[in-house]
Specification:
homodimer, alpha+beta, BirA Bifunctional Protein, domain 2, YbaK protein, Rossmann fold, 3 domains, nine-stranded mixed sheet, six-stranded mixed sheet, 14 helices, 34 strands, 30% strand, elongated, aa-tRNA-synt_IIb (chains A, B), ProRS_core_prok (chains A, B)
Chain lengths: 584, 584
């Protein structure tokens, strides 16, 4: 059936929505694809729903090719499974929670590992039942602190989430690879550039994890890649650790006056002015005091030592201490720990270690991996306006552990030896996880192995953000006139525009639309009477169907115009040839 | 792609689920279509999802034929629109409510009139934009007090809900009829018997409403129909009102002793024993005291008088007093109203009216429409163990209004004169409403008419319960072996079963499955090795694909068996003819 614009539920808007920060948001609203209902919550209008359905069809197709079966879970789920996995608490404010009329606790699921695990536990009991990969395409909820950028960071969003179940680690590797391959096929079919980066698996309790990032300046993720092929998001980047240095012959620590040097820069300037040598921030040891809030609500003050030319990276530190929440230590935290002299903090004082093993403060102390044994540092002496130099790691101070929280910089060496890395921004459009046995253990999913012994199942979890992908495609495919959809996901295949007041043009346009539809095209036919050609062309450009056919003045001569929305090319062709030309 | 059972996510169960009250619930769980997640909340397994998708495709097709366009709203919606319509309060405990991290109120939508109205208000402004009908197929939430019967009364369920928008009443009539016609086509294609009954439109604030009921003994709705074609649910049934009788010559009221007659039956027995005449319950006036709880929380005691051979019908009284909640008056309510003597209540006492106009109690009094002026009743005298006879309606007592709350009985006359009605049970599978201007007024949806004057839009609302329909089809199509799907919604078109240990049988079954798939059939192929024929046949019967092909011993001779799941017929045919036979 040809969709006639005169009756279609579509109104394009002349004004950009006031809250639109990015092109996809602005254009999807203006062109009548989506409409805001609440912060981060949208309704889908007919055009938007058509594009979404096409993306979903491609995903379903590739899931079937990967041997995955579709199921569907409710968004509303009871608390218990999430209590068992620990995520009822871990999700904090990010999860919508509610009570039913009897006072029982429910949630709107942000992700479904728990209930998929329980479903398989419910129905399966033998290694012979495995491997299994099941998935759903479903509306998920996360109570984002700052929903923004339209569909890119919403509170309701559609995801394809798949879960694999295997009896062995080798099986998990194969299931993981099958999903990873399917993701590559999906993104290729969608014409969406992607980079697969190593990701941190810690937060999900897993062993291996990769993200599919779409490189874009509006991306919220920073990732690194080397010429040699290494790619990781900054959370997963690991530092190349230098060799330790022997202590023999290293100078002993010397405390020196350093008035008015509470920052690294003032300290370096002071050192260069008062001491021999050409010091840089990299010669200093910066000590950052953080406060962790653990899941049980307890607050712990910790310190991190890192080269003075690096800062603590917000995302890396969040991952490093997850599931605890991290914030800078407050004045109150410092008051409780008077041995730490703000602006002049170091791991050591005249009387011995202040931080690290055998510390006087009892505060846990973590070091950047570059601070290897035998490296010598200028750092605080825990006395107001005094620092110490020649303080040697491993000899004069130690750590309770090494930690990857320092900022990653352009030019840092890739951990696999493939050369220096460059930094880029990307947006997560897919994520594959080897969860391992965390959820299966928490929820008791075991099967009998070949020897009749119960073994815990190992799992993977694989997500694709359907609505986020749609927005990314829109971000990537637009110009100052509007959207330009790739053919694979365009809401219609052809947009036929009848112009003028000549009945013959409208008749030709109608019959051409019917012919196109009969040839398998989805046709949007702009049959609106008394609407100027300029308005019709503007709407066609805004809506962004890639192939447009104009039926106007030439209709009398049996001619129509083919208009390529992307290149702008226009070609006059005989109407009789239009279907063949569009099919070619 | 042929779906192979050896890898499919399907486990049939031998045991009925403990909580299953009805066949659809029992069989859909046992055959691996759905799985319970919480009371009234289910997950959809691959088989169930396939059937659901087929029903949805039929609905989408007929919505397109009716000129309706699909949109999609979130389940999570802000409070404001529902506050404006009054339904934030009206829904009471039946609606799931929640707060976001900022404390803002949200709900899980039980129905979407408000936001559809606002969407159209947002985008449309002229009568030329209308008529418009838009719909969605979407998961809805209602916090049922007693979720039960599997999908038939769940707390999450899938609905198709459509909304029409017109500038005129005639337009609404046409839009309503188009949806009503589409519903008839949908139910016919689904092979689902239905009765269209007049329904009460009051609760939705509308002017006309009809329900599509599927006649079934497990239905929760009672409806009536006459031979002459009248059909209504009991809430919408209206009583045929007798002619009033002149007061001239009617006897005056007489109070008489009636010890120990607090019930209608004891009163009738007493009357027949002590007075001339052959009295029945229909000669008595029963007075029922009810307590209403209004939306603002206030409690009001009211009384209803009706012939003693009728009771107050729970559903009719609920509709009559909606949106107030109704319950029987409590002992406390009676204490507060000492003029009403329990067991001996009447509208009149020796000193004059107790109930109705100029009543001594101030309690509002409603009468059944049969209690017309001039009818003479035996009823309570508001004195312990005393009744009154010859109490004449309109002369000795009056009402504050007439009300349709009495039970409807087999044989009652249809209001349209089409003869006596019969009673039947049904389950609501569709509902069409002329909402009129209630929502448009509450939310300010107006358009400019031909004369440039703002007019309020008139609306309709049209619902079909997708998951409930699925369960009803399952209720209607099963036997003691399992499900028997109609071809239009079966999860697969053909179920091929390979039996035995002969590799030739499995090869033939595989090639036949591929041929069937190539001919356009969706094929489920039971290729499980080492599973006995008995188990495979049992599973095939339980799963209920209507056409089964058995490939077993006859394979060596190139023969297969066609098995009609519904009739049980089995026919041996040459394998080469199987596709043609199944296509025929």
């Amino acid at each position: 059936m040809v969709t006639r614009l005169s009756h279609y539920f579509l109104r394009t808007l002349r004004e950009d929505p006031a809250d639109a920060e990015v092109p996809s948001h602005r254009l999807l609203v203006r062109a009548g694809y989506i409409r805001r209902q609440a912060p981060g919550v949208f309704a889908w209008l007919p055009l938007g729903l058509r594009v979404k359905a096409k993306i979903e069809a491609i995903i379903r197709d590739e899931m079937a090719n990967a041997g995955a079966y579709e199921v569907h879970f409710p968004a509303l789920l009871p608390r218990e499974p999430y209590e068992l996995s620990g995520r009822w608490e871990e999700y904090g404010d990010g999860m919508f929670r509610l009570k039913d009329r009897k006072g029982a606790d429910y949630l709107l699921a942000p992700t479904h590992e728990e209930v998929f695990t329980l479903l398989v536990k419910d129905l399966y009991n033998s290694y012979k039942d495995l491997p299994l990969t099941i998935y759903q395409i479903q509306d998920k909820y996360r109570d984002e602190a700052r929903p923004r950028a339209g569909l890119l960071r919403g509170r309701e969003f559609t995801m394809k989430d798949a879960y694999s179940f295997d009896a062995s680690d080798a099986g998990l590797d194969a299931s993981y690879q099958a999903q990873r391959d399917a993701y590559e096929r999906i993104f290729r079919r969608l014409g969406l550039e992607y980079v697969i980066v190593a990701a941190d698996a810690g937060a999900m309790g897993g062993s291996k994890s990769e993200e599919f990032l779409h490189p874009t300046d509006i991306g919220e993720d920073t990732f690194v890649r080397s010429e040699g092929g290494y790619a990781a998001n900054v959370e997963a980047f690991t530092t190349v650790v230098p060799e330790p240095i022997a202590f023999d012959g290293l100078a002993e620590p010397v405390i020196f006056d350093s008035p008015n040097t509470p920052t690294i820069q003032t300290l370096v300037d002071h050192a260069n002015a008062t001491m021999d040598g050409d010091y840089t921030a990299a010669d200093t040891l910066k000590n950052v005091v953080l406060a962790l809030t653990h899941l049980d609500g307890t607050r712990e003050v910790v310190a991190v030592g890192l080269p003075g030319d690096r800062d603590v990276d917000d995302k890396r530190v969040e991952v490093a201490f997850a599931p605890a929440a991290v914030e800078p230590a407050t004045a109150e935290d410092f008051e409780r720990n008077p041995l730490l002299v703000k602006g002049y903090i170091g791991p050591w004082s005249e009387t011995g270690p202040i931080l690290g093993e055998e510390s006087a403060t009892g505060i846990r102390y973590f070091l950047d991996p570059r601070v290897v044994d035998g490296t010598s540092w200028i750092t605080g002496a825990n006395i107001d306006e005094k620092h110490v130099h020649s303080l040697v790691a491993g000899r004069d101070f130690t750590a309770d552990g090494f930690i990857e929280v320092a900022t990653v910089r352009e030019g840092d060496p890739a951990p696999d030896g493939s050369g220096p890395v460059r930094l880029a921004r990307g947006m997560e459009i897919g994520h594959v996880f080897q969860l391992g046995r965390k959820y299966a253990e928490a929820l008791g999913l075991k099967v009998l192995d070949e020897n009749g012994k119960l073994v815990t199942v190992t799992m993977g979890s694989y997500g694709i953000g359907v609505t986020r992908i749609l927005a990314n495609i829109a971000e990537l495919n637009n110009d100052d006139k509007g959207l330009i959809w790739p053919a694979s996901v365009a809401p219609f295949d052809v947009h036929v525009v009848a112009t003028g007041r000549d009945a013959a043009a409208f008749e030709l346009a109608a019959s051409l639309s019917a012919d196109l539809e009969a040839s398998g095209f989805d046709v949007l036919y702009d049959d609106r009477p008394k609407v100027s050609p300029g308005v019709k062309f503007g709407d066609a450009e805004l809506v962004g169907v890639p192939r447009i056919v104009i039926v106007g003045r030439g209709a009398a001569d049996g001619e129509v115009e083919l208009w390529d929305r992307r290149t702008g090319d226009r070609q006059v062709v005989p109407a009789a040839e239009a279907v063949a030309r569009l099919t070619a």
